Every structure is written in C-alpha cells, then in structure tokens.
Amino acid sequence: MEPERTEKITVNIGPVDLGRIDLLVQEGFFTTRTDFIRTAVRNQLAASASAIDSTVARRTLVLGSQHFSRRDLEAMRDAGERVHIRVLGLATVADDVPPDLAAATIASVEVLGAFRASRAVKAALGPRIV
C-alpha cells in the first residue's frame, strides 16, 4: 500500500481575509498561509467532531483508510461476495487489480475523501462511484 499523501484543494479567499492571514504569518503566529489554513480546518473539524462521529456511525462508514488488494477481491469473487466500499478518508484498490475483477466484486463506492485506483478500474466501476 502506498503511503498516505495529502490532497490538493483550491480555496478562494477575499483580499481582506487573505491580508489578515498574511499579517498573522508575518507576525509569526503561523509559518505559512498553508499552516494557517490547515490549523483552521483542524479546529473546525474538532468543533464538529460529535456530528462527524454520529454521522459516520449512522452511515456505517469506515473511518480512516481501507485498501483492497487483488488477493482480497479474488477471495470475494471466489466466495460469490461483493463489497460496498464506504469510507471517510482514503480508499485504495491495488494497481494490479484488473478492471473485470473490480467490476465483479465492487458493488458500489462511496468515499468522502480520496479514492485511489487505476484509471481502468475507475472506468469499469463508472456509475457505481458515488
């Protein structure tokens, strides 16, 4: 399994708010704009922790990361099982998983965060990815 990476997002911020962030960076409260934004996001997530936890439980999501190897999916196929991938965090399908195996074993994909799989696997799963 590949190490966890960060995901890049784009945020539009008004010039006054951006100036306030720059002021805090210049004054040494934060090392960079990115440091400020990550801290602000973590603070908001901490403030919303109970709502997140109850929603994760209600929606039966895996919290963190979940990886599916070729061996995992072959065992499911051989047992006549299918999986519904439901993750808050990172879900990965190994690079050596062929598209037909993924299509035969993965019934649906719902990932709040990042879903990493080969282009061919993502194409095979197509409309199953929510």
From TrEMBL:
UniProt cross-references to Pfam families, sorted A to Z: RHH_8 (PF17723)
Top-level taxonomic group: Bacteria
Protein name: CopG family transcriptional regulator
CDD domains: RHH_NikR_HicB-like (cd22231)
PANTHER family: BLL4998 PROTEIN (PTHR36215:SF1)
Transmembrane intervals: none
Coiled coil: none
